[in-house]
Amino acid sequence: MERFNSAIILAGGKSSRMGYNKELIMIDEKRIVNYQIEALHGIFDEIIVVTKNREFYNDLDCRAVSDIIEDKGPFGGIHAGLVASRSKYSYVMACDMPVINTAYINFMKKNIYQKDVDGCMTLYGDHIEPFNAFYSKNIVMDIEEYLYGGGYSIHKLVKTLKFIYIEENKARRFSPNWEMFINFNTREDISIYLGSGSSD
Ligand SMILES: Nc1nc2c(ncn2[C@@H]2O[C@H](COP(=O)(O)OP(=O)(O)OP(=O)(O)O)[C@@H](O)[C@H]2O)c(=O)[nH]1
Ligand SMILES: [Mg+2]
User: Fold this and answer.
1) With a 6 A CB cut-off, is 16 part of the ligand 1 pocket?
2) 94: in domain
3) What global pTM score does this model have?
4) Is residue 44, in this structure, part of any structural domain at all?
5) Which ligand has the nearest atom to the CA of 13?
6) Which end of the chain is more exposed for a tag (fewer CB within 10 A), N or C?
7) CATH number of the structural domain spanning residue 79
8) pLDDT tens for each residue of the chain, 200 residues long
9) Which residues form the signal peptide (predicted)?
10) Residue 14 annotated as binding?
C-alpha cells in the first residue's frame, strides 16, 4: 500500500449556513473543488471526493464516493474517504477551503514519514484543525465505533488516538495569516476573503 498517495475532499455537508450547496462555490470563475483537485494532483495520485452528488465529478480527475455512515457530519465523510483510500495516510480537506499550501502538506508528510501514527494535525491555541491534516486508514474501525456510539466531535476521538500535533507557531511560518485553514461557512466569509486581497 502506498503511504501518502491519496487526498480526500469532504463535500457532503448540509451547507445550511451558506444557503446554497458549498460544492458549487466559485472563486475567480472556478469552482473551489476543481481548483483543489488540480492543485492536489501535484502531490497526490488519488483524489477522493466524498459527496452526495457523485455526478458533479464525472468529468474531473478524481473518484467520487458517498458516505457509508450518513448524517454524522464531517467525521462520516472522513470515514468514507478513508475506506475508499488506497493509501495508509490520506490528506483531508473540506470543499469550502480556498487555499492549498503545498509546502505545508510536504512538511506534514515529513513529520509522519516512516512513523506509525494515526495521523497529523495542527494546533490552533487549545483547538485542533481537523482539515488540512493527515489521517491513517488504521482508524476506520475507531471512527465506526465512535459514530455508532453517538459520537460526533472529531476533536474528542482524535484526543484518544495517536496523532502528531504541529504547534501553531510552526504552522504560522507556512501561513502567517492562517489562510491555509480558512473555510467558508457563510456568504460573508467569502466576501471578507475576497475583500482582503491577501494570500499566503
Ligand atoms: N461527506 C460528508 N461531508 C460532510 C458532512 N458534513 C459536513 N461535511 C463536510 O465537512 C466540511 C466542513 O463542514 P461544515 O463547514 O460544517 O459544512 P456543512 O455541514 O456543509 O455546513 P453547515 O450546514 O453550515 O454546518 C465541509 O466540506 C462539508 O461539506 C457529511 O455528513 N458527509
Ligand atoms: Mg466549514
Assistant:
1) yes
2) yes
3) 0.96
4) yes
5) 1
6) N
7) 3.90.550.10
8) 888 999 999 999 999 999 999 999 999 999 999 999 999 999 999 999 999 999 999 999 999 999 999 999 999 999 999 999 999 999 999 999 999 999 999 999 999 998 999 999 999 998 999 999 999 999 999 999 999 999 999 999 999 999 999 999 999 999 999 999 999 999 999 999 999 755 55
9) none
10) no
